[in-house]
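User: Teach me something about this protein's shape.
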Amino acid sequence: MSSLALKAFAGLSHRTTAETHHTISLPKPISTHKRFIVKAGKFSPKVTGRNLRVAVVGGGPAGGAAAETLAKGGIETVLIERKMDNCKPCGGAIPLCMVGEFDLPLDIIDRRVTKMKMISPSNVAVDIGQTLKPHEYIGMVRREVLDAYLRDRAAAAGANVINGLFLKMDVPKSAGPGSDAPYVLHYTGYDAKTGGAGERRTLEVDAVIGADGANSRVAKSIGAGDYEYAIAFQERIKIPSEKMEYYENLAEMYVGDDVSPDFYGWVFPKSDHVAVGTGTVTHKGDIKKLQFATRHRARDKILGGKIIRVEAHPIPEHPRPRRLSGRVALVGDAAGYVTKCSGEGIYFAAKSGRMCAEAIVEGSENGKRMVEEEDLRKYLEKWDKTYWPTYKVLDVLQKVFYRSNPAREAFVEMCADEYVQKMTFDSYLYKKVVPGNPLDDLKLAVNTIGSLVRANALRREMEKISV
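Assistant: First, the predicted structure itself:
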């Protein structure tokens, strides 16, 4: 369904920041009508006696992917992460394309989900997944496993991984073109020598990638601005083995005012347990009550389970007003790259980290030159051009279908359509807008209108009853 809406938005104009290459237009020769453009070469100073130094703050998927790309590209890379065993409260779903793009080993994927149940407020369940090909699946991972793997791979590529808590950053007075003044990072380092108390330390670098999550201190250091955020609450529940068989390759999503007024609840399978959670922007104070309702909706299938871990975490609802300043760029949750409607963030975090690092490697000519803001801006331009329609459309879908229980009933009804499932899974698994069949698109549009009309009629009847 999201891909169908994406095509409707594909025609929207989206203006990104124009490139600022210095160009010289030569006079038009008399003998031809062709115009010749000469682009000036890069004038940023060369780095002497060393390679470019870049600090990546945050060791999640964004930070790990960025650090590996930088190190492989000849950059002197430092990755700072406070919690090396961080079990982030995350559903843990990754699209199939991420496995290939990031060369992930299959043994870090706990479950291969090939079936989903979308469950409406009235507990109407729709089975999703019949359009998947034999090799297609949604990967379920534990963040402590995935994040550690990406950090270890960055270290193997040459990045210096530091167990430390980033505190603040001194921004040079001039970080503009031609400047090579360093950024000074202040952090508390933890190792065998310092013990649990840690030791205050500083680090000078030429550029910084902020991958330190929704509460990013790097973002605060550059005045990136605030954004609205959701609270995600999740319980890891160890359930009896016979009940775990039910979730072997199945994930569940619950919608309804009881589990979330503006999002959804979930039951996702992990290696030997299930993750049961929910999230909300509008009713953060009620998060425990919403979580209880989610657990209650799934009660028969998790009966006899034992809660082994409780987790909560903020999730950004939209990109920050500012994602770049001087030689500092934000990626992942720090930049606000979690999608609406699905709440997906792992793939987009890793992708943004890699894209930002690639822009630094290219701009610095593999670490031989100083980078400038314009080099990092190329990452933002490429990101916005590639993913802006996806974020915009999913935002609209969430506002349309998550606004009331009747609308959610319509949403679940639509999910029963095989064409909707195919388009949705193809878009999710491969992160591409796939072309649809015009006749099927028309049929889906008519069915969508019919579902929404029925939803509005149901809402009016409910309002009459409540009067």
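Now, about its shape. The two ends are 35 Å apart (CA to CA). The longest strand covers residues 160-170. If you'd like, I can walk through any region in more detail.
User: That's plenty for now, thanks!
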